[in-house]
Description:
Blueprint (H helix, E strand, L loop, with lengths): L8 E3 L10 E6 L3 E5 L11 H10 L12 E4 L7 H13 L1 H4 L5 H4 L10 H7 L8 E2 L2 H5 L1 E4 L8 H19 L4 H8 L1
Parallel strand pairs: 1-2
Antiparallel strand pairs: 2-3, 4-6, 5-6
Amino acid sequence: xxxxxxxxxxxxxxxxxxxxxxxxxTDSSCGYELVSPILTESTVRSVTPxxxxxxxxxxxxxxxxxxxxxxxxxxxxxxIDAGLxxxxxxxxxxxxxxxxxxxxxxxxxxxxxxEDRDDWLSYILDERYYAVNVQAIGRQGTVExxxxxxxxxxxxxxxxxNLCDALTTEGVNGGCVDSLRxxxx
Length: 185
């Protein structure tokens, strides 16, 4: 259990509430999901024991699972235009990002991508089931990245967290694919 690995964990009904503890909730796509508290520089290390807890409890990953990451926007950037800049950068960098995904995540109902950039930016304004969810800005002050497949590998999760953080930072600051590449080196 999460508690056995030094983490505060609670089982809850499905909700979008931001908590200061790890929570296990139901999920319509894969049965259950593990949701972290807001990760900071000091709490991000809790990802490894959290994933170990899931594995020790018999948890496993199927093709239906995703690793969704919410990156908190700076207070001055908590508006839809900043989210659209992040989503635009994600779209522009898709050739760089997409090799990270398993084939089943490239055409996933809950993490769709659209080839045409203008269509992409229009669609994500109305629905959260795209690779980048800007709907979370109003509710949680975050941009959500939904396309990565589920994993119990902390190393893979940390790499995706870092990429999402870089995408958000560069997008909010008007960066381009080249500045994203430099940040990731």
